[in-house]
Amino acid sequence: MVQTYIHVGSRYPVNRKKIRVCVEQFLQSKGIQEAVVSVSVVGARQMSDIHMKYMNLKGPTNVLSFPTYDPTQPEKDFPVSVEFHDEDEEQEIKSLGDVVVCFPEAVREAGKLGKMVDDHICFLVEHGLMHLLGFHHS
User: What domains are there in the chain, each with its CATH number?
Assistant: First the structure.
């Protein structure tokens, strides 16, 4: 089972169910049946703060990912793994990490691309999930 925790600022009208389905389908398409993922949808100010704190870059960006563990970045102090125990099935579920989407950036980009905002948020979440799985672009 894929568990998706979604945190959304109260003033951002996003389709939580669509995000949850997007995460589940994407991970299952990659052969991942058991995982925990956190998705946050934040404003430009909060994204700017996160962007500066973790990337040392000014201004908001559309999406950031924070993997629980990334073997391609051994210099980072990631925990080896974070595991949740499913009491019903007695199995360990790996936490992949967190994806943070900037709602105003998603709205702006969706408008430029002629896309529905929720569809673009799902695209950004999938991009973030790729990073959680260890795929990086230059």
Answer: 2-132 (3.40.390.30)
